[in-house]
Write a structure and sequence with these properties.
The complex is a heterodimer of chains A (about 120) and B (about 500).
Chain A lengths: L1 E8 L2 H4 L3 H20 L3 E6 L7 E4 L6 E4 L8 E9 L3 H10 L7 E6 L2 E4 L2 E4 L2
Antiparallel strand pairs in A: 1-5, 1-6, 2-5, 3-4, 7-8
Chain B lengths: L17 H16 L6 H31 L5 H22 L5 H19 L5 H10 L28 H5 L10 H8 L6 H11 L5 H8 L3 H17 L12 H16 L9 H21 L4 H14 L25 H19 L11 H13 L1 H4 L4 H14 L3 H15 L1 H14 L7 H13 L3 H13 L4 H12 L4
The chains are: A alpha+beta (about 120), B mainly alpha (about 500).
Chain lengths: ~120, ~500
């Protein structure tokens, strides 16, 4: 099954994390991503820029509205996503538990419903 | 706010950053000395000597000094500030005045003068208990509790460079009660969040700074600093006493102290990069455990923990291949074990055993978790001399262990041990029985790895293959994965 491990945490700036503080985390995330890759379960890994860089758009009111900033303003923000392909939820939990982000934030484990590849949608649930 | 980190960390290894912090201060001290001066070189040497001494003192006495300073006021933050200030004055003053004969006593005197000044300026009433302790710690004092003593120390230090008086009158640290035990009980007090107990010990007793602790626990430094400060504030505001629990309270209170010390050894290193930090934290955990055993010489579990850490750390060098792949205990080369450390562990274990079985106690003390785990390690280590592993004894010990500490890990270990004594089918039967009682077993990686091994040994390769696959899906460690793949691929078809 394909799962997204969605990392949510306070952003570095809000948490008072300095560039120097980041070094051990880069190393930890590096080791984590390599473990995922070595295990052959990694589909993709993205760490997002701070939410201040977000642009939100909608046409639900008829015309294009472009908003500077995230749709939902929360204290903890979506920070990244690791998409993994593992047999079941237990395996997804085992990997989420090892994610460095779990030490200071929360990780949502969400199964993928549909995925598009080779020109068509595939049901993965 | 994070209090300024102690100017030097007493970490055992020069790679942990404790001494790196000292180096920063050395730089400051030498910069101060770099003014154009004919005797600049001499003074720089003096500065280096001062820095080296300060670093040594920090390494060996940081926790003792901090415990003494914090005990009377319960204000660890203020005590850390005062001690950091004293180290700073030492690095500035010692190059001029020379390193005192008794640097620990000098630092203690300067720090508590500073502490008293702070309290005085705040018109703080807690200066009374502070005085009580300070006056009690004269050179003749030898008991743990505060009591009468000599008052011969200066009350204020206006000019840090003029504290030569402390050279003559500084208290001898060896003669002062050791309050580290009280500090350890404060750090692991039931009112302190279990997650912060180990970090608190690393900082207050060993002098690690928040950054280093944060790295080990993979927590952002500001978050770790905040947790530590919150815990220290709680100690002061909740009035957690710096006392050693009495005999009736001891069993309940000692367990979390031992757990927290063990926590420094059992950090999940898969998440943390940096082999040097790992090695030094293992060494520090051992140092804490042995200190605890020294301070509580009649507690079997304190010796049990010291024994467990000695015997576990003794095998560090034999645990992995040069490529980093995991070698199971019974396949390790005993010549790679550290035999001096094993001997030390055995001595702690004998002491624990003697204490637990001594005559005259009202009722026999049940063997504790750490003592039993250490005894199991000891049986494995005996292979170095006997060439054989006594699985029956291991089974007896492991059965006792699951009674006092019924963790999944202990149960799975028992299944493996039963298999060695009674055959793989018996081990599998134990795992099956366990699965009906512990639903969590289904996602416990070691249970699947053990099941796979036992199935393979029972000539059930198809089921073994399935179990290996299951174990592999739960394995996040690359080296463990390699080993499991290897076992799976060598199954007969």
């Amino acid at each position: 099954m394909r799962y997204s491990l969605l990392l949510t945490n306070q952003e570095a700036q809000d948490a008072g994390v300095t560039e120097e503080d980041m070094a051990p985390f880069r190393a930890a995330f590096d080791a984590y991503a390599k473990s995922l890759e070595q295990a052959g379960v990694l589909i993709s890994a993205d760490i997002l820029q701070p939410s201040a860089a977000t642009t939100t758009i909608t046409l639900r009111n008829g015309t294009l509205e472009v908003q500077d900033g995230p749709f939902a303003d929360t204290k903890e923000k979506l920070a990244g996503a690791f998409v993994v392909d593992v047999p079941d939820l237990d395996a997804a939990i085992a990997w989420a538990e090892k994610c460095p982000g779990a030490q200071y934030g929360v990780i949502e484990i969400r199964p993928t419903a549909l995925s598009f590849s080779d020109g068509q949608w595939h049901e993965l649930g | 706010m994070i209090p300024p980190a102690p100017s030097t960390g007493p970490a055992a290894s020069p790679t942990t950053g404790g001494p790196a912090a000292a180096k920063r201060d050395t730089t400051a001290a030498t910069a101060h000395l770099n003014a154009p001066d004919a005797s600049a070189t001499t003074r720089r040497d003096a500065g280096d000597a001062a820095a080296v001494t300060a670093e040594q003192v920090a390494r060996t006495a940081y926790g003792r000094l901090l415990a003494l300073l914090a005990a009377p006021t319960r204000d660890i933050v203020a005590a850390e500030d005062a001690l950091a200030d004293a180290f700073e004055r030492a690095l500035r003053g010692w190059p001029e005045s020379g390193v005192p004969d008794n640097p620990e006593g000098w630092l203690l005197t300067v720090a508590r003068n500073r502490q008293r000044d702070e309290l005085g300026s705040a018109a703080h009433r807690t200066s009374v208990p502070l005085d009580l302790l300070i006056e009690s710690s004269g050179p003749t004092e030898s008991t743990r509790d505060a009591g009468g003593g000599r008052a011969q120390h200066p009350t204020t230090v206006d000019d840090p460079f003029a504290v030569t008086l402390a050279h003559d009158h500084a208290p001898d640290l060896e003669a002062i009660p050791d309050k580290r035990l009280e500090l350890l009980f404060v750090c692991a007090h039931p009112a302190i969040d279990p997650a912060v107990r180990t970090p608190l010990m690393l900082q207050t007793v060993l002098g690690f700074d928040a950054q280093q602790i944060a790295t080990a626990f993979v927590v952002p430094a500001p978050a770790m600093a905040q947790r530590l400060v919150r815990a220290k504030r709680r100690i002061r505001s909740a009035g957690i006493p710096f006392t050693v629990p009495d005999r009736t309270a001891m069993p309940g209170r000692l367990a979390p102290v031992l757990e927290a010390v063990y926590g420094a050894y059992a950090i999940d290193w898969q998440r943390v990069s940096g082999e040097t930090l790992r090695e030094s934290l293992s060494a520090e955990a051992l140092y804490l455990a042995e200190t605890l055993a020294d301070l509580l010489p009649t507690e079997p579990e304190a010796h049990g923990l010291a024994a467990l850490l000695c015997l576990s750390i003794a095998r560090t060098g034999a645990r992995t291949t040069p490529e980093g792949d995991w070698i199971p205990l019974d396949a390790q080369d005993p010549t790679l074990w550290n035999h001096a450390l094993i001997a030390r562990g055995e001595s702690h274990l004998r002491r624990a055993h003697a204490l637990a079985t001594r005559e005259g106690t009202a009722e026999p003390i049940p063997f504790g978790r750490f003592q039993l785990e250490a005894a199991m390690q000891s049986v494995h280590c005996a292979r170095a001399s006997t060439g054989d592993t006594d699985w029956r004894t291991l089974r007896t010990l492991n059965e006792a262990l699951v009674r006092v500490a019924p963790t999944l890990g202990a149960h799975v270990s028992l299944a493996a041990t039963i298999a060695e004594v009674d055959g793989p089918e018996a081990g599998l039967a134990y795992l099956d029985h366990l699965a009906t009682e512990a639903p969590d077993l289904a996602r416990f990686q070691p249970a699947w790895a053990t099941r796979a091994h036992l199935l393979a040994r029972s000539d059930r390769p198809t089921e073994a293959h399935t179990a290996y696959t299951r174990a592999l899906t739960l394995t996040t460690d690359p080296h463990l994965r390699t080993a499991l793949h290897h076992h799976q691929s060598t199954l007969p078809h």
